[in-house]
């Protein structure tokens, strides 16, 4: 059973989420919050498996609430799915930097929202189809220009084996574990092992952080 906390300031939308998620046999809505401060308090108190978080909320916005729950220094980072009406590059990138594990738009079909929660609960990352790697890459390039070993003095990817490096590049290209397995002609279980190893070596929490790092280090070409 996935224990879910819903953080949304619009009562009608919040009720819709409760109805959609509450109808699933494997999801239990354990709490609701209508502002950012309430979201942080509820998440710390209830310890949900997944938090559905809106970006624009009163008192404390969703990005700052996410940072407090899942950002650097969090002892037990929450798994947060950002769901918002705003498909803006800055919002997407800042939400991911704050520690969010995924990003969907509110106009996504109910089945996609439910699948998003399940995906995040499994420890995987999720980006809406409209949030392309180009969009993330271009914004990452603006905020943190791609660094090479010659310019930064250290390449964090040097710790990776050749196969781990290949897997990271495919993750950054938007491929799922199953797609990576087909691309490299290995089993999905082996892919999971490679993903776990490279995340541990790079001190990353999830695949979203891996995508951001791939762009920041210049592994991915944002001009593609």
From TrEMBL:
Keyword Acetylation assigned: no
SMART domains in alphabetical order: HTH_LUXR, REC
Transcription regulation found in the keyword field: yes
Record organism: Microbispora bryophytorum subsp. camponoti
Residues annotated as domain Response regulatory: 3-121
Keywords: DNA-binding, Phosphoprotein, Transcription, Transcription regulation
Gene3D superfamilies hit by this protein: 3.40.50.2300
Sections of the chain in a coiled coil: none
Pfam families: GerE, Response_reg
Matching PROSITE patterns: HTH_LUXR_1, HTH_LUXR_2, RESPONSE_REGULATORY
Source organism superkingdom: Bacteria
Span of domain HTH luxR-type: 153-218
4-aspartylphosphate: residues carrying this PTM: 54
Protein name per its UniProtKB record: Response regulator transcription factor
């Amino acid at each position: 059973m996935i224990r879910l906390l819903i953080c949304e300031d619009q009562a009608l939308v919040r009720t819709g989420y409760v109805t959609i998620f509450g109808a699933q046999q494997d999801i239990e809505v354990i709490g609701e919050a209508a502002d950012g401060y309430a979201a942080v308090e509820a998440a710390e108190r209830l310890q949900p498996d997944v938090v559905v978080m809106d970006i624009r909320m009163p008192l404390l916005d969703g990005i700052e609430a996410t940072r407090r729950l899942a950002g650097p220094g969090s002892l037990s980072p929450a798994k947060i799915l950002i769901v918002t009406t705003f498909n803006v590059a800055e919002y997407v990138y800042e939400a991911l930097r704050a520690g969010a594990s995924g990003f969907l738009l509110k106009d996504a079909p109910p089945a996609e929202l439910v699948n998003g929660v399940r995906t995040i609960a499994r420890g995987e990352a999720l980006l809406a189809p409209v949030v392309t790697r180009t969009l993330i890459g271009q914004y990452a390039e603006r905020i943190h220009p791609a660094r090479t070993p010659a310019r930064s003095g250290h390449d964090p990817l040097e710790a990776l084996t050749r196969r781990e490096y290949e897997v990271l590049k495919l993750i950054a290209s938007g491929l799922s574990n199953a797609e990576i397995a087909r691309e490299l002609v290995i089993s999905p279980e082996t892919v999971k092992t490679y993903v776990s190893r490279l995340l541990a070596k790079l001190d990353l929490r999830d695949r979203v952080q891996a995508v951001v790092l791939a762009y920041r280090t210049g592994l991915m070409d944002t001009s593609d």
